[in-house]
Amino acid sequence: MTQIKETEVIKEIRISTEEKIVTAARKVFTKKGLSGARMQDIADEAGINKALLHYYFRSKEKLFEKIFEEASTKMFTKITEFIDSKEMNLFEKIEKMVENQIVMSMENPFLPAFVVNEFHQNAESSICQTIGQKMTVSKKLIEQIQEAVNQGFIRPINPLQLFINIMSLSMFPFIAKPIMQINTGLSDELFAVLMEQRKKEVADFIIRAIRM
Amino acid sequence: MTQIKETEVIKEIRISTEEKIVTAARKVFTKKGLSGARMQDIADEAGINKALLHYYFRSKEKLFEKIFEEASTKMFTKITEFIDSKEMNLFEKIEKMVENQIVMSMENPFLPAFVVNEFHQNAESSICQTIGQKMTVSKKLIEQIQEAVNQGFIRPINPLQLFINIMSLSMFPFIAKPIMQINTGLSDELFAVLMEQRKKEVADFIIRAIRM
DNA sequence: GTCTATAGCGAGATAGAC
DNA sequence: GTCTATCTCGCTATAGAC
Question: What is the pTM of this model?
């Protein structure tokens, strides 16, 4: 242990504080958004001083950018993970997509609403443009759906509509969660049970809707 | 014309300015949210001075409250409009709900994301609590779905899941519109065509998914 | 690398003339 | 009712000690 070089120790400490900041920023930004978040909140959450935030990340915008990019990537990575697989058929892919997206949302409850909202409010900003470009929506799935239609494997449907449906059914409940909870009094525990059910329910729902 | 009493003329002018403010506030708040909106932006949009906003509405919060309540009501009014009807069967109601919600969203493109986001960011605030209570989610539809299941009219399904699915498919596309547009380059015109198609497509999709 | 203190500015809100 | 000018405060960002 004592043989670790000093530079490594320093690096270790540096990363640790930086990581504390990132974790805190993630929590505050995803909850309050760019304009709603306060640097003071992030500092408090991280248990450090406000000035340190500026030492590690030059500005609020730079810190936000990091969190926003990370969040956008996470949101679209899982759902596209299996899209290009050659080994699964369309139904299996849909099942996997739905499950992955629901699991991701359960682990990161504020993430979908955060990403969607920042794009909504700042669609024309350079940050959104840059990040939006990076997220390559695979055209493979669209093509595979079209092919399934052509071969009579599923009923005729506009592939883009089906893609939208898959995303809608997987993500919307997490975005609407606070509204649902306020006027139905649904507890976090019951919500979690409901979402657990949904992994299977949504896949079934979609497959029934598109099969011949 | 000249016979109109002075009091009426004055009232006319007052309402006119107030209406200008509300219209401007609606536009700015639904686009930028509470924390992102600036009173100056609203004044500019209304073509008046900042001080006038405070003359008509005491504070930014009060003005926001009005817009937010109006928006929340609009968002959930249309979708529940036909829920209690005795004359329609379940499938007809679903068709109507979907169509109404899509039409409303096309006319008020920023509204769904706005409402959902403010509830997300301020779920515990008094404004959200108050407004959330007012929106009575009719239990009639849930009951009617359960009955349809019991009678074997539709396949067994958790009524709440079906309700969530209806809302998801109708509203999510408008919330995700900016993201879709950035990375597919979809124009406003093509998006509108797609949503027009959806009125029928979504209803079909749901009915196929739940029929026996 | 981490802190305290403070500069500097932007935004909500008010005073007061017209 | 509507405007200009201004107060006040909160927030981002920086200076500088340790």
Answer: 0.93
